[in-house]
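hiii, so i know i said id send this last week but things got crazy w the move. better late than never?? heres the sequnce for the chain we talked about at the cafe, plus the structure i predicted for it. fair warning i was half asleep when i ran it
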Amino acid sequence: MAPTGYTFVGYRSEAVEKGGQKNRIRAAYEKTGGDHDFYDGMITCSTIPGKIVCRLVWAMGEEESRKYIDLSLSAIPGDFQGKLLEIPVGTGVLTMPLYRKLSSAEITCMDDSPDMIVRAERRANAMQLSNVSFRQGDVGALPFENESFDIVLSQNGFHAFPDKEAAWKETYRVLKPGGTFCGCFYVKGEVSRTDRLINRFYVKKGYFSPPFETMESLNTRLNSLYAETKLGSVKSIAYFSCVKKR
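okay and structure toks below
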């Protein structure tokens, strides 16, 4: 049965459209993930091609790139021993070094791209991380019970998720009361050149999927769902941490 307020045809069309977006995004990231050196260099701003992309698209240097990554992870305690969900994990280049230090934590990493999961798991195995498990899956339909995790981490995900409302609901659902939700993603309205290039290239290629949050809309959304919200930005990347209300 279609949800209230939808005709069956309208609901089916929306579902088909989101399914098509999901397939385009998965294909785009599988293609990029195949050249994992380029992808990792771009995400970390640590290679010559990566630095060119960071400067051209994001108006960032290596120091600014490192800053937003560190800030997006800063809410995770150094002695964390609970259950953590990361979605999407990508190739794991940003988080596996952290997880090596959290040997007493139980960490689950998910991504919609099977290729990304393979590369992240390969990285974890090379680092001998026995406390990290991997599974392919959709953020809009997480295969976990309510209130399963002490921390939910989402870095560079919400600008790509095709069904953002489902992603917000699911990440909230699986987080325990008093648990921490943290991460980072692109927001529009901060750097005009970045906005133009995102719409001209990233959206058309399937890497990003509108609509996009602004800092104002993100602040409103987080404060409506969570307590103790901390929100900031480095150029067009918002970083945040917040606590699920008890």
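btw The longest helix spans residues 8-34. thought thatd interest u
miss u guys!!
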